[in-house]
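Incident review: delayed structure delivery

Summary: a single-chain prediction request sat in the queue longer than the usual turnaround. Root cause was a stuck worker, restarted by the on-call engineer. No data loss occurred. The affected request and its eventual output are reproduced below so the record is complete for anyone auditing the incident later.

Affected input:
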Amino acid sequence: MKVNTTPAIKTKKGQVVIVFGAGASYGVSSCTPRNPPLSTTLFLEMTKDFPVTWGVLPPYLKDVFNDTVPGSFERGMGLMLTEARESDKWNLKTYQKDLGQYFAGFRLGIGDDYSDPYTWFVKEFRSLLESGIITIGSLNYDCLLDEAIQKQGLKIAYKPGANGVKLDKIHGSCNFLPSIKLASLEHYANKIIVPFEVESLDGLVDKIKNSQIQPAMRFFTKDKDNLTCSAELDAILFEFQSLVNDANLVIIIGVKPNPDDKHIWDHIMNTKAKVVLISPDDKCGEWLTNYRSGKYNRWYPMKFEECHTTLITEIEDEIKDRTNS
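Output delivered after worker restart:
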C-alpha cells in the first residue's frame, strides 16, 4: 500500500518529521552480523569487540557502565569525559573510534518487510521523502537507515541546504569523518572544528580503524557533548529543532522519552504539531501525560517492525487533514 499524494492535496516541505532511535535499529533483525544493541547491553558488546581498550577499563568504571539503573552507559562515558578534561587520563579519541568502528559494522541483510522495516519505510514513503514532505531525524550512530535509502537509489541530504532525502543525524554518525584534505587539523579548546566528509559505507570499518581521528559523533553522555566537527553537528541539530517546531506531525519511533535530553524533548514538548510515539516502553505514556497534556498526541505501544499500518494511517490522515483544511 502506497500513501496517496496528488496535486490536489495541499502539502508542504517538512510537514511530517519522523524520528528514529535505537529501538528502531534494534528491530532490524535481518541485518548483519546481528541487530545493533540497545544502550543497556552496549558496554558488554564493546568489551567483547574491543578487549584491549573497553575490556581493560578499571573496576570503578566498569561498575558504572554495568549498573542496572537506566542511563549507565551515559554515566560511564560522562565520568570518562570528566576525568579526561581534568587530567588527560583517557584518550577519548580511541574510545570514540571504537564506537564508530563498532556501529559501522552493521549492514542490512536480506529480509522481508518485518525483518527489514527501514527498507519497507523507504519504499512505502519514497515519493514523500523525495519531495521533502517527510523529513527524517535520527539519534543513531549506525547507518542502517542510510543504507536503506541509498539502496533505493536516493541521495541523502545530511547537511543543511543539501539536496536529497533529508536525514538529520543529530548525534553525528559513524560515516561522518573529519576532513583530512586540510593541511592540518585545527583545534580550539580541545574541539576539532574542521568540517566532516560523508564516507561511503563500503569499507567504512577499515577507514575508521586507519583514520587518525574519530568520527564526528557526539559523546554518549547525558549532555551529548560535542568535540568533533562541532559547528556542523550543531547546524544539523538546529535544523532538526526547526523542523520539529514547524511540523504538522511528528512521529518518534523506537525512542524512550528522556526529559534530560532537552535538545530533543523540549522541542517535541513545545511543538504545535500532533505528536505520535511508537514504542512498547511505558515511559512514552508517562511522558505524554506529564509534558503534553491537553495537546494532540498518540502513543502506540508497539515495535517499529509492527507499526506498518499505523504509520501509513497516521501519515495519510495528516495529508488528508491538510487537504480538507
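Verification: The chain is about 40% helix and 15% strand.
Action items: add queue-age alerting; document worker restart procedure.
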